[in-house]
Amino acid sequence: MANTYHQIYIQTVFAVKYRKATIEKSWRPKLMAVIGNLINETGCKTIIVNGVHDHVHCFFGLNPALSVSDIIKSAKSKSSKWINEKGLCPSRFEWQKGYGGFSYSRSHLEYVYRYIQNQEKRHHKQTFKEEYLKLLERFGIEFDEKYLFDDLI
């Protein structure tokens, strides 16, 4: 076959270390743009990046030559470096280790886009922990809750 064709959509979710409310509303849109650009730089196609004070959702078309793990590792390390170099937080900014990754079909694009777009509204009613546990359960991912938030203080 002369070319490779693919259609792989991934949503990832990752949190601020210790779930401290450090992503300020004043610079949050710029951070989301930075993360989206970092994902695009890997050869993937960002659909939407959005979040609230303590976590971020990324939805993108995956380049099958890359691993989700490498993409998110790069986005997290470079975005935390950006935050720290800009001096946006009074103390050192860090993302929690790990992330959640979920795959979707093309028929779910609009639903997932709206879900991520409405994060602020959603989190008036639901905590990050509640949201994350529901995602894991909805996707049938086995987990031990004692290891999900091991650096929570």
UniProtKB/TrEMBL annotation:
Transmembrane segments: none
Span of domain Transposase IS200-like: 5-119
Signal peptide from the UniProt entry: none
Taxonomic superkingdom: Bacteria
PANTHER family associated with the record: TRANSPOSASE FOR INSERTION SEQUENCE ELEMENT IS200 (PTHR33360:SF2)
Record-linked NCBIfam families: transpos_IS200 (NF033573)
Protein name: IS200/IS605 family transposase
Species, as recorded: Negadavirga shengliensis
Taxonomic placement: Bacteria, Pseudomonadati, Bacteroidota, Cytophagia, Cytophagales
Gene from which this protein is expressed: tnpA
